[in-house]
Design a protein that fits this description.
The chain is α/β, with parallel strands linked by helices and 285 residues long. It has a domain of 170 residues: P-loop containing nucleotide triphosphate hydrolases (Rossmann fold), CATH 3.40.50.300. It is built from eleven helices and ten strands. Strand 4 and strand 5 form a beta hairpin. Helix 3 packs parallel to helix 7. The longest helix is centred in the middle third of the chain and has 18 residues. It starts with 9 loop residues before the first strand and ends in a 10-residue tail after the last helix.
Length: 285
């Protein structure tokens, strides 16, 4: 009830993404409230990951806008989006496999060494690309207190790993971890950037039922412990229905339904396009 009175942390306004003659996402609008866990579901090829790629600056939208706390972010590159406070994981694990668990988190925090703030980004984006690049380089090279900052980052990384139950693995190589722990490490690395909004792309992919339940509890704890809003894509419907407070259903690039779990479970369009009749009477969460 309290969240309804707050401004959305993220607003997507009539966003369209075309690739040549293909319209992957069409006039998509949505909002996410602070502290919410929002799910995005739909068949393969519906455009879910494309939406994440637009939010995080991998693609610039053909039309429409994306706002983070009322600030338009739809024409910034991914590294700037990180500074604004958005982090993500991927469908396929993308860890630094030959680095340790601790080093993976420290790499994610590297942008903090330059102490660049969003308002500085706005200012420097008005300069030429060369000028902005030169500023970034010299800012990083001559920033005082580098080693003190590095020590602080190790403490921060240890705290994150402890909260995710991974501190015992801090000196192990990422490639040596079991699959489920590698998934958790991806989330930990995303948290290391201190995001306001965490995007999880199929976090339960490849997990067995007990691992999925453990991950569901972990995501809730992450939301509460790190004061982060969560937007996730997932095909495991028990995971989605048991975790997400609201759900958006995408089909052929268009949102066909959005609402709470009961609304989605009983929506005729959703049943026809994605869930199937067997979900009509299922109670989850």
């Amino acid at each position: 009830m309290e969240n309804k009175a707050k401004k959305p942390i993220l607003t997507i306004d009539q966003m369209t993404m075309r690739f040549g003659g293909l319209e992957a996402v069409s006039d998509f609008s949505a909002h996410i409230q602070p502290g919410e866990i929002l799910g995005l579901i739909g068949p393969n090829g519906a455009g879910k990951t494309t939406i994440f790629n637009v939010i995080t600056g991998v693609y610039q939208p053909t039309r429409g806008h994306i706002y983070l706390n009322d600030q338009a972010i739809d024409h910034y590159e991914p590294h700037f989006i990180t500074h604004f406070g958005i982090a993500r994981t991927f469908q396929n694990i993308r860890l630094f496999q030959t680095m340790t668990v601790m080093e993976n988190l420290q790499a994610a925090m590297h942008h903090e060494l330059s102490n660049i703030k969003p308002d500085k980004i706005m200012q420097k984006r008005k300069q030429t690309k060369k000028g902005a690049s030169d500023w970034w380089f010299w800012k990083a090279i001559f920033k005082l207190g580098y080693f003190k900052k590095e020590s602080e980052q190790r403490e921060k990384a240890a705290y994150i790993l402890e909260k995710l139950g991974m501190l015992k693995h801090k000196d192990e190589l990422a490639l040596s971890l079991p699959y489920g722990e590698q998934r958790k490490l991806e989330i930990a690395r995303a948290l290391a950037t201190t995001p306001q909004l965490l995007l999880l792309d199929e976090p339960a992919a490849g997990m067995n039922p007990s691992e999925s339940v453990a991950l569901m509890n972990l995501v809730r704890n992450i939301r509460d412990t790190f004061n982060v809003t969560v937007f996730l894509i997932e095909h495991d419907m028990k995971f989605v229905m048991g975790l997400c407070e609201r759900i958006i259903v995408l089909d052929y690039g268009k949102a066909i339904a959005m609402g709470d779990r009961a609304h989605i479970r009983s929506n005729p369009k959703v049943i026809e396009a994605y869930l199937g009749e067997e979900w009509k009477d299922v109670i989850v969460g």
